[in-house]
């Protein structure tokens, strides 16, 4: 019957997507936040963009088939798919350690330049070597001060959540929107799921099945 076929398709989608994510998260496509266990794109991944496009397709299929996935993407990723521009609040949810640190810099009452000793650049380790990215032209020679710290934080958030993963996200979003667009996309929402004292966003699909079955 139609109902039986729908149930089987949902089950197959769930199994396939979970196996795929379990396999590829171990191959450098995503990085996991130690506190929230959120997965986000690895900016230094060597995987072909087509792999990220496939992940987007699979997530779209899960939404289209009303499958609830235990895949810990941060809320900001879903908001970005809806056209949202990431903010510091989004970074705090996705990566609390980094986001809260930037917020403290903004709220600091003393002299930012002499206390934090930062320039408009980001340095992090990749395969045992330090990699430095300038957040603006000549950023390595521009100190962060009380007067320009808001600009620094804005550029940092934009780089971390957008620019550094643009290739990966664009491919992912293409695959997702190829499958899930229009009304189904607007109908999904989020629910909190607390597991082992970690706050995680669990994708909760609220698609009206009658719409999916009979929409033209």
UniProtKB/TrEMBL annotation:
Pfam families: HECT. It catalyses: S-ubiquitinyl-[E2 ubiquitin-conjugating enzyme]-L-cysteine + [acceptor protein]-L-lysine = [E2 ubiquitin-conjugating enzyme]-L-cysteine + N(6)-ubiquitinyl-[acceptor protein]-L-lysine. Keywords: Membrane, Transferase, Transmembrane, Transmembrane helix, Ubl conjugation pathway. The keyword Transmembrane helix applies. SUPFAM superfamilies: Hect, E3 ligase catalytic domain (SSF56204). Its EC number is 2.3.2.26. Gene3D superfamilies: Hect, E3 ligase catalytic domain (3.30.2160.10), Hect, E3 ligase catalytic domains (3.90.1750.10). InterPro entries: E3A/B/C-like, HECT_dom, Hect_E3_ubiquitin_ligase. One of its GO terms (biological process) is protein polyubiquitination. PROSITE patterns: HECT. Residues 23-191 form the HECT domain. The chain crosses the membrane at residues 50-71, 199-215. One of its GO terms (molecular function) is ubiquitin protein ligase activity. PANTHER family: HECT-TYPE E3 UBIQUITIN TRANSFERASE, UBIQUITIN-PROTEIN LIGASE E3C. This is HECT-type E3 ubiquitin transferase. The lineage of its organism: Eukaryota, Sar, Stramenopiles, Bigyra, Labyrinthulomycetes.
């Amino acid at each position: 019957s139609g109902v039986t076929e729908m149930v089987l398709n949902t089950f197959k989608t769930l199994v396939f997507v979970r196996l795929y994510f379990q396999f590829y998260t171990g191959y450098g496509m995503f990085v996991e936040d130690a506190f929230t266990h959120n997965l986000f794109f690895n900016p230094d991944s060597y995987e072909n963009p087509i792999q990220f496009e496939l992940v987007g397709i699979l997530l779209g299929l899960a939404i289209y088939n009303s499958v609830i996935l235990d895949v810990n993407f941060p809320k900001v990723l879903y908001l970005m798919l809806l056209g949202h521009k990431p903010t510091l609040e989004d970074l705090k949810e996705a990566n609390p350690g980094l986001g809260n640190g930037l917020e403290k810099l903004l709220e600091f009452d003393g002299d930012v330049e002499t206390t934090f000793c930062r320039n408009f650049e980001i340095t992090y380790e990749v395969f045992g070597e330090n990699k430095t990215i300038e957040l603006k032209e000549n950023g390595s020679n521009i100190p962060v001060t009380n007067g320009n710290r808001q600009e620094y934080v804005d550029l940092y958030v934009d780089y971390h959540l957008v620019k550094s993963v643009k290739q990966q996200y664009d491919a992912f979003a293409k695959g997702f929107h190829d499958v899930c667009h229009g009304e189904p996309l607007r109908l999904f929402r989020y629910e909190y799921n607390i597991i082992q004292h970690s706050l995680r966003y669990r994708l909760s699909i609220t698609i009206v099945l009658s719409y999916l079955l009979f929409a033209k």
